[in-house]
């Protein structure tokens, strides 16, 4: 009679699908919001976009992506900063983050059979599933981080001038950091601007969290499989 334990894993398919749909909605909504930001500040400056009172300044907010034109009696925002689109983007982000976190956390656990939330799963299947999650989340993090930080790796002290083809008066790098990947750039006119938009620097850092959690799940699954194989080998050696 076999006393081998039946291994299981949580049913996370629905969570992954919900996270995928939310991510798609987030990409589409953010794309529309970013498109609506194009030249929105210039229209405010030129008086093409009217606001309450005298125009003061324009600024960009990280999320939802939007340009905010400040007037002395109020504000006017682009598409992403309005109530309905902004609420939908925040809801999509909350659903995606919540489902992704719960799904990755579930992959770290080793549940016992007997619940409708679990399904039989071998140690090898668990390693493959957690390894796939780690590969996907890790690849997304590395690709996005490389996109945001490549100028820092060419030389942090001259990151602001990297890739710009400046023939004279290149921007100076006042300060920089690798996490988040950001630098303050001073141009010849005296204007100081960030190397990356705030939302890009923040997202490049935040993407490390699901990658790290997926990595923990993969390491735990691999160690459990190795421990089981070692125990099986030891038991066979005593026969």
Automatic annotation (TrEMBL):
Record-annotated membrane-spanning stretches: 15-38, 87-106, 127-148, 199-222
Which keywords describe this protein according to UniProt?
Membrane, Transmembrane, Transmembrane helix
| Name of protein | Uncharacterized protein
């Amino acid at each position: 009679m076999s006393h081998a334990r039946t291994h299981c894993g949580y049913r996370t398919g629905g969570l992954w699908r919900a996270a995928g749909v939310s991510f798609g909605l987030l990409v589409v909504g953010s794309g529309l919001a970013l498109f609506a930001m194009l030249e929105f500040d210039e229209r405010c400056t030129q008086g093409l976009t009217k606001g309450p009172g005298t125009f003061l300044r324009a600024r960009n907010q990280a999320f939802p992506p939007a340009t905010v034109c400040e007037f002395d009696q109020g504000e006017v925002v682009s598409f992403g900063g309005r109530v309905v689109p902004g609420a939908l983007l925040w809801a999509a982000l909350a659903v995606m983050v919540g489902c992704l976190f719960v799904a990755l956390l579930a992959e770290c656990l080793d549940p016992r059979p007997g619940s409708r939330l679990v399904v039989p799963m071998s140690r090898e299947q668990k390693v493959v599933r957690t390894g796939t999650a780690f590969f996907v989340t890790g690849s997304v993090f590395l690709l996005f981080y490389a996109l945001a930080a490549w100028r820092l790796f060419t030389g942090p002290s001259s990151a602001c001038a990297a890739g710009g083809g400046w023939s004279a008066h290149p921007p100076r790098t006042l300060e920089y950091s690798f996490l988040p990947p950001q630098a303050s750039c001073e141009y010849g006119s005296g204007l100081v601007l960030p190397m990356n938009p705030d939302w890009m620097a923040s997202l490049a850092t935040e993407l490390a969290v699901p990658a790290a959690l997926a990595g923990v799940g993969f390491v735990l699954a691999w160690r459990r499989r190795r421990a089981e194989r070692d125990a099986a080998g030891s038991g066979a050696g005593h026969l």
